[in-house]
Design goal:
Layout: H1 2-18, E1 24-25, H2 31-36, H3 59-68, H4 70-75, E2 77-87, E3 95-101, H5 114-119, E4 123-129, E5 132-138, E6 145-152, E7 156-163
């Protein structure tokens, strides 16, 4: 887990550095292109074309299947995926880094299986806000805290990840 976290942080920091210190990396079209696409559904509403049928409309059943199947994670993860991390090496203090991940930047599985969670001593909790679901994985007595955010459409879709670990 620490390697995966370090790899995500390294990718986010490298992306921010490549953009000249910008805190936000985005695949958004320029304003003129955005105006042309006003009638089209927003990119944020898109997800990868599902290769598998939605495992369940019930979130708990969906989440169980999602955690156990990397292919299902690929099918029900929005592209690009908003990734939020903390740049612990920022000066004078750590700062948040937001990146939009797609293609090779998305390393599946994004969420560990129940067996991996148990082996790593992770504790899962869920909250709901306006119909969206937040699933948090924490390792007690450490700074490890990873959150996954899901939205309901035709099926549940992972649209954002946040790693608050330092």
């Amino acid at each position: 887990m620490k390697f995966k976290r370090a790899r995500m942080l390294t990718m986010a920091v490298a992306l921010a550095a490549a953009l000249g210190g910008c805190d936000l990396a985005s695949n958004s079209p320029p304003a003129s292109a955005a105006a042309d696409q006003a009638a089209a559904p927003p990119a944020a509403a898109k997800s990868a074309a599902p290769a598998q049928a939605c495992p369940s409309q019930d979130f708990d059943a969906f989440l169980k299947a999602f955690a156990e199947d990397a292919q299902l994670q690929k099918s029900y993860t929005q592209r690009p995926l908003q990734s939020e991390t903390i740049d612990a090496d920022a000066d004078p203090e750590p700062k948040p880094v937001i990146a939009m991940l797609d293609g090779d930047a998305l390393q599946f599985p994004l969420m560990p299986s129940a067996q991996k969670q148990q082996a790593d001593g992770l504790v899962m909790s869920q909250t709901e806000l306006n119909g969206d679901k937040e699933v948090m994985l924490v390792k007690p007595d450490t700074d490890y805290q990873l959150s996954f955010f899901f939205r309901k459409g035709e099926c549940w879709t992972l649209y954002r990840m946040r790693d608050d670990s330092l």
